[in-house]
Amino acid sequence: MPGPRKIEPVGRYHPVGAASRAAPDSSEVDDSSSPQSGSARRTYERLRPISAKKQKPKAEPAARDNERLITTNRKARHEYEVLDTLECGLMLTGSEVKSLRTGRISLDEAYGRVKGAEVWLIGCDIPEYVQANRFNHEPKRPRKLLLHRREINKFANRAFEQGLTLVPLKMYFKEGRAKLLLGLCRGR
């Protein structure tokens, strides 16, 4: 018959549950090592550290990015062959962002255009936000795309030289900022 378990507390510990305060069974008592009688002695359940709490399972990588889809351009995948993609930011007004949060946008007729050293999104329809009243925006105004200069040189100039088209594939919020996935496409 094995002897009682030795419990050596290290750090901050506390007993587990009400079972730790219960009287021991007669099978748990070992009279040979203790001068006290078995009925006077109490044994405690194994102690666990206070910091050992249940931890939440880690989120998937996509959930960690905090990405929320606004819309996709399904027609573009059908009409064009996508050669390369690039994520870029958009320069928007407050009422446009509010309208995007409600999911009201159309990318069907939109395309990207290089003007000087800048890339613009043309033909994208973001309807007016009703509560913005006099501070509203024009629904089909051109919107500037935010890219680094080296990305513009590499991506947009390639489109100009090879006769390819810049097509928006999807729009989403990433960490609270509106992003656009721009595709370098060839017509089918």
Description:
- By secondary structure, the protein is of the alpha+beta class.
- The chain contains four helices and nine strands.
- It has a seven-stranded antiparallel beta sheet with strand order 3-8-9-4-7-6-5. A two-stranded antiparallel sheet has the order 1-2.
- A hairpin with a 2-residue loop joins strand 8 and strand 9.
- The N and C termini lie far apart (81 Å).
- The model has no long low-confidence stretch (mean pLDDT 79).
Summarize, please.
This protein is of the alpha+beta class and 188 residues long. Helix content is 17%, strand content 30%.
Write the layout of secondary structure elements.
Layout: E1 13-14, E2 48-49, H1 61-64, E3 67-72, H2 74-79, E4 80-90, H3 94-101, E5 111-115, E6 118-122, E7 143-146, H4 149-162, E8 165-174, E9 177-187
Antiparallel strand pairs: 1-2, 3-8, 4-7, 4-9, 5-6, 6-7, 8-9
